[in-house]
Amino acid sequence: MGVMRKTADQALGLTATALALVSAAQATSPSVTVSQGLIRGFEHNDTNVFLGIPFAETTAGENRWKAPKALSSFAGGEFNATTYGPSCAQAMSGTAITAQSEDCLSMNIWTPLSGSDLPVFVYVYGGAMVTGGSSNAQWQGYNFARKDVIYVNFNYRESIYASPNAPELEGQSQNFGIMDVDLAVQWVYDNIEAFGGNKSNIVLGGHSSGGVHVDHYLWNHPETFLAGAVEMSANAESGPAYAPAGVALAQVVEDMLAAGVTLGCDASNYTLDCLREADTYAFQTSYFNSTSNTWFSPIVDNITRFSNYTDRFAQGYYPKSLPLMVGNSDQEGRLFAYAYASENTKFNKWIHTFDADVAWVPSAELLAAYNSADYSSVSFESGACYGDARFLCATDYLVDVRSSEQPTWIYRWFGNYSNVLGIADIGPSHGSEVPFFHGGNECFSKLSDVTTAEQELADYMNDWFVAWIKEPSAGPGWDKAQPVNGPLARLGVPGNELAIEMSTTDIISFKDFISVSRLRLAPILAGSRLAPSAARLQLSLHVPGPERIVTRARRSPAGLQEHHHYVYRTSIAMARPDVGQVVAWYICTVAACIFLVFRLIIRWRLLKKLYLDDFFVVAAALCLIGDLGIQHYMFTQGMSEIAKTTTAEKINMQKLIIPGSTLYVTSLWLIKASMVLFYKRLADRTKYQTIYNITLGVLAAAWLVLFFDIVFKCYPPDRQWKSFENPDLTCSEKQSTINYWLTILFNIFSDVFIICLPISQVARLKMPRKQKLGVISVFLLGVIVVITSIIRAIYSHLGEQMITCTVSMIETAIAIIASCLPVLRTLVFGSHSRTGTYSGRRGYELSNSGAAGLASKQHTTVSVSRGGPDELSRHDSEDELVKENMSAEDPTAGISVTREYFVHEGAMERQSMR
C-alpha cells in the first residue's frame, strides 16, 4: 500500500514536480468556467494543464475531522490553476511531494488542446492511506491528453487527518478520506463537460491504497455513473488495519504533550474540539512520523467501509455490470522487504512495525508456504509473504467473488526495471508498473537512465490502456476473468515486452477453513512499546470469515512451473469456530475425574485411608476444572474470533491470563509431586529417599519461580490489560519469551526425570520379567504427557491460542490419568498369587489388614503365603509392587523376630514364632 518515510525517496522515486510550467512567452491561456467560477490554466507539451483546482473548503481548524464541504465559489470568482496545490498533511516529508497543508483538497486536469465529448480517466494515487500526493511526477496526464483522454488526479486526506477513529464520532462515518474521494469524483462528474469531457464515460482507477479507494467507491455506489474502473494491486479486502477507537488518538495526544505542545486537554479527557485548536504540524511528533501514523486508516463502519463484501455482492449492493480491470505486479512484496529496516528479518517479526493488518494470517502459516531456498535473502522471503497476503490474495479473492457476474479482466506485471523504484534487482515489485501505465515520457522525467526500450514499453502499455478507457466494455484485448482457471494477461515479460502473453490463474488446490482463532495472541501478553499496539491493530482488523490457503501456479518466462501459496479470507456464514475443541475440553476433564474417583475408591478400600499424593491429585483435578471454567469464559468472550471482539472483551480475556496460567502450571506440578511422593513411599528405607526428597524440593522451587514469573513478568500486572487503553503501559517482549522457555523447559525436563526415577528401582524387583515390564509400562505412560507438552509448546510458539488451550487440557487430563494408573493396576493386570517377604516398620505396605496390624512393630519380618485363586486377597495395593518383591538389600542390622502366618479364606492363624 505504498511505502513509508524510510524508503519513499529511494524506492518510488517520488521527487518534486514543481515543473516550471508557466512562462510569460505563452501566447494563450486556456480557461474554462465551472460552477465555482473561471479557471485559468496553461498549455504545456501539447496539452492544456490545470493544476491545484480546489474542490472543497479547507479541512483545517473547525473543519478538521468533518466531512469535506464543497467549495461554493473561487475567491474573486476565478482561479489561476498554474501550480500544484499543497499536499495533504502527513508524516512523509522532503522532496517527494509539495508543501503540506490541511487546505489541500485540490485536483489537476490535463486535456487535449481541443476536443469535446472526450473520455475521462480519474486516477487515485497510493500511499497506504497515510502518505502521497497528486504532484508526483510518475502519475501525470500528458500521455493521456495527447491521445484524446482527459486525465484527472487529486489530493485526499491521509492518516490521522482522514481517519481519527475517535470515540465521540462512533455511530457515524469518520472515514473522511473516503468522503474526499467521493466529493472529488462528484466534482468531476458535475464539471468535466466544461473541459470537453463526457461525464457518461468516466473511468476511475487507482494503485495500491488508491485501488482500495476505487473499490470503496464501487461498494458505496452500486448505481454509479462510472463507465469502468481499474484496481491496481489492491482492493477493499487489502486493508489497511486501524487501532481501536481512541487508542491511537490518545497515543498521539500523549506524544504531543511530551513534545511540548500546549493543549487544553490530555490523553484521558481529550475532545476533538480541543484537538482542533492544535496546529497542523503539532500532531507530527517523532513517534507519529516513524510509527503511529500507520495506525489511522478507514475503519469498518458499515457506512463507507463494510464488514462483509461477499454478502453485499450477493445482495446487489455493487455495480455488477461495470467493466473492471484488476491486476498486480509479479513481486508485489519485494519492495516491502526494504521497509523499516526489515532486511534479513523474518516476516513474523518486522510485519508488526508496518501496518500489522495482515497479522490475522498466522505468520507461521505464511512462512510454511515458502521455501527459504527459493529466495536470496530472508528479507525477500518476508517481502513475498507480505505481498501475497496483502495484495495478490486480495485480488484473487475478489476476482473469484465478482468475475462470475461482472465483466472483469486480470493482468500480472513482469516488467523488470530497477531504475523505477531506485533499488537494484528489485524486479517487478509494488508500484513499478505505474509510470508505464501512464506512458512514460514526462512520467519518467525524474528517473535516471531511462532506456529506449522502457519508453517503447510505456508507449505500448499506455496505448492499449487508453483504448480500453475509451471503450471499457469492449475489453483490453484478452478474455474475461473467471472464478477458477480464468485467463490472465502477462504484461512486460522480459524478452517479449511488446506483447501480451496469456496464461491462467490455475487454482490447483484448496485447504479450506483455517480457523480465524489462529490469531497471534502472544503480542497482547507482552511486547515492546510498539508490539502491543501492533497487536491491537491486528485484533481490530475485521476478519469476516475463516481464511483459506490457495495454491496458485503460474508460468515463469523460462516455462518453469512455480507454485505460489496465497492465504486469504473468505466470507462464509458459519457458526462460531472451534466449538468442537470446547467439547474436547469437557471430555478431557470428565475422563480425568472418572479415573480420579476410581483411584480414591480403590485406595480407601485397600488401605482405609488416603495419602498426601491422593490429595495432591485431587487438588490438580480441581485446578483442571477451574482452568476449564476460565477457558470456557474466554471462549464466550470471543477467543476463537478475536478479530471480531470488542476492546472490553479483549480486556476481560487478558485479565484471565494470569489465573489461567497459574492453574495450568499448578495442576501439572501437583501431579508431578504426587508421583514423587508415591515413589518415595514405595522406596521406604532405601537410598532413593534422598533422591526423592531433593526432587520434591526442586519441584517446589520451580513452581515458585514459574508462579512469580507469571504474575510479575509485567509489573504491575494490570499493565497487561491497561495497555489496551494506554499504549505506554506495555510489557517486555523479552520477559514474555523468558516465561515461555521457563515453562517449557521446566515442564518437559521434569516430566522426563520423574518418569525415569522408578525404573532402576523396579528393575531390581524379584518378579517375573513379563510382570516387571508390565509394571514399568504403567510408569512409562507418562511419556504421553511429555509428548503433549511438546505439542503444546509448538502451538503456543505459533500463537495458535485455541489449539494451545485444547492441548493444555489434554496434557493435564492425561497427567492425572497417568498418575492414577499405578493405583488401578489390578484393573489392568488383575490379581495373581505370589509369595514374598518383607522386613519393615510400617503396616500399610501389606494389603492383608490383619497381618498389617501384627507387622507394625519395628524389625519384624513377615512371610505371607497365598494359595490358589480362592485364597487370594481381594485387595491388591500398588504398594506391593516394591514391598512384596524387594531385593535382599536391607541396610539395617540386628536381631529380628520372625513370625509365620497362614491365611486361609481370609482367616489368619499364628502358627509359630522363633
Automatic annotation (TrEMBL):
Q: Per its UniProt entry, which superkingdom is the organism in? A: Eukaryota
Ranges for domain Carboxylesterase type B come to 29-471
Would the keyword Endoplasmic reticulum be found if you checked this record's keyword annotation? no
- Please list the coiled coil stretches: none
Instruction: Write out the transmembrane intervals.
Output: 583-602, 614-636, 656-679, 691-712, 738-761, 773-795, 801-824
A Gene Ontology molecular-function term? Answer: hydrolase activity
Q: Give the InterPro entries listed for this entry.
A: AB_hydrolase_fold, CarbesteraseB, Carboxylesterase_B_AS, Rhodopsin_dom_fungi, Type-B_Carboxylest/Lipase
Q: Which residues form the Rhodopsin domain?
A: 598-828
Q: Which UniProt keywords apply?
A: Hydrolase, Membrane, Signal, Transmembrane, Transmembrane helix
For whether the record's keyword set contains Membrane, the answer is yes
The family this protein is said to belong to = Belongs to the type-B carboxylesterase/lipase family.
Which protein is depicted?
Carboxylesterase type B domain-containing protein
